[in-house]
Amino acid sequence: MNSELNRSRELIGVYSTQQTVDGDGVEIQRIVTQQAYEQFDPFLMLDEFKGGFDGQQTRGFPEHPHRGFETVTYMLDGAIEHRDHLGNVGRLVSGGVQWMTAGRGVLHSELPIAEQNYFHGFQIWVNLPASEKMTEPKYREFGPEEIPTLNLANGNCIKVIAGTATHEEHSATGPVKDVATQPDYWDVNMLGATEMSLPISSSKRVLMYVYEGSIDIKLKGAASTIDSQQMVVLSPGESLEVTANEVSRFLVLTAEPINEPVVSWGPFVMNTREEIKQAINDYNHGVLV
Ligand code: FE2
């Protein structure tokens, strides 16, 4: 065992969301990671999005392009319909996940549907290594019944979208596989003021985003509180003890860092300025996809 991995995890950073509006009037709580990308590599952005509640008017995200990375959408409540230039049509409902590898280019829309005209969920942007930035686009969708749940003590549970979570003799493996950066993506639900040991590999740096309630994590014996709409970045290290102060829900993200330069412009994320200029030029000339 590497002695590095026996150490307590260290707090690398705590980030609060910025409130913004994107698409056609969609409320976003956003964490853009590029100010300190080496801490987050390969995660580029996390959005918690909400639309259509309380009679709010929104048309979601009308047609727009992407190149050079993956967009991952996890729906908590409500629904949206995805359509892209490849002819994929998907209805993403509560508890479902869409994993879209934009690669060389995708043009798509994400719009509310008439019967369920509201939505609340997350979109994360996961970078691709240079060798896969211009790969053929790929669209994958998983319904809520395909996302396994690992049940822990006290009614706490982990929904596993990607990676494997193990507790005692039980484990759950998410349906998302064959992703360049080998991510774990979990949705952890704690039912009240309880404790749990998060079963995450000690070799992995961990990102946690709290979207409901608040949790304490023990680091070197001292507790740090993470409130709703905050993200924490933790170094690799030994087991992670989490205490919920109330009903609390949070996302856990890990992945292999890519360690390559990032140059981005809006929906394009490449390695160099020249590649960004090319993407803009391709889009303007109708040859992005
Ligand atoms: Fe998009």
Brief summary:
With 289 residues, the protein is mainly beta. It has helices spanning 37-40, 273-284, and strands at residues 11-16, 18-22, 26-32, 43-51, 61-66, 69-84, 89-93, 97-101, 106-111, 119-127, 138-142, 149-151, 157-162, 164-167, 170-173, 184-190, 195-198, 206-212, 214-219, 222-227, 230-234, 240-244, 248-254, 263-265, 268-270.
How does this model look, in words?
- The chain is mostly beta strands and 289 residues long.
- It has one domain (3-274): Jelly Rolls.
- 6% of the residues lie in helices and 52% in strands.
- The chain is built from two helices and 25 strands.
- The strands form five sheets. Strands 2, 3, 4, 5, 6, 7, 8, 9, 10 and 11 form a ten-stranded antiparallel beta sheet that branches.
- It starts with 10 loop residues before the first strand and ends in a 5-residue tail after the last helix.
- The mean pLDDT is 93.
- The site of fe (ii) ion (FE2) has 5 residues, from strand 5.
- Fe (ii) ion binds next to strand 5.
Number of helical elements:
2
Low-confidence stretches: none
How much of the sequence is in beta strands? over 45%
Largest sheet features: 10 strands, antiparallel
Give the strand tally.
Answer: 25
Ligand names: fe (ii) ion
Q: Could you give the distance between the termini?
A: 47 Å
CATH class: Mainly Beta
Overall geometry comes to globular
Q: Could you tell me the mean pLDDT?
A: 93
* Proper CATH architecture: Sandwich
Order of helices and strands: EEEHEEEEEEEEEEEEEEEEEEEEEEH
Domain unit count: 1
CATH superfamily: Jelly Rolls
Strand pairing plus helix content: what structural class?
mainly beta
Helix content: under 10%
